[in-house]
Amino acid sequence: MTRLTGRRVLVVEDEALVAMLVEDALLDAGAAVLGPAATVSEALQLLDQESPDVAVLDLNLAGETSTPVADVLAKRGVPFVVATGYGAEGLPASHSHVPVLAKPYDPDDLTAALGRLCN
């Protein structure tokens, strides 16, 4: 298991069950979880108050795209993983270089991807 001890991870996910599983996996890996935020506005409010080391973004939040959150993270130099059921083709061109985890994914794959971004 990848250790994320002391890392602050922003979680943006609108599906409650998935958010809980992600949060549990991150806590097990030693991370401090920011969120989970279920909407773009919640995520942006968290970013006004917090400075994550890394983030995991669901691309589609109840029909709303998380691109504005990705834009803020990129501007701040915060690496992130996009978790989506739509594949990499759903990413806007400005974020086409971002690692994508296809849903459903193994929580160990998520912590490993975030661990790689933190190194």
Q: Your description of this structure?
A:
Helix content is 38%, strand content 24%. By secondary structure, it is of the alpha/beta class. The chain has one domain (8-118): Rossmann fold (3-Layer(aba) Sandwich), CATH 3.40.50.2300. The strands form two sheets. A five-stranded parallel beta sheet has the order 2-1-3-6-7, sandwiched between helices. A two-stranded antiparallel sheet has the order 4-5. The longest helix is centred in the N-terminal third of the chain and has 13 residues, at 16-28. The chain is globular and about 30 Å long. The model has no long low-confidence stretch (mean pLDDT 91).
Task: Please give the structural blueprint.
Blueprint: E1 8-12, H1 16-28, E2 32-37, H2 40-49, E3 54-58, E4 60-61, E5 64-65, H3 67-76, E6 80-84, E7 100-102, H4 107-118
Parallel strand pairs: 1-2, 1-3, 3-6, 6-7
Antiparallel strand pairs: 4-5
Helix pairs in contact: 1-4, 2-3
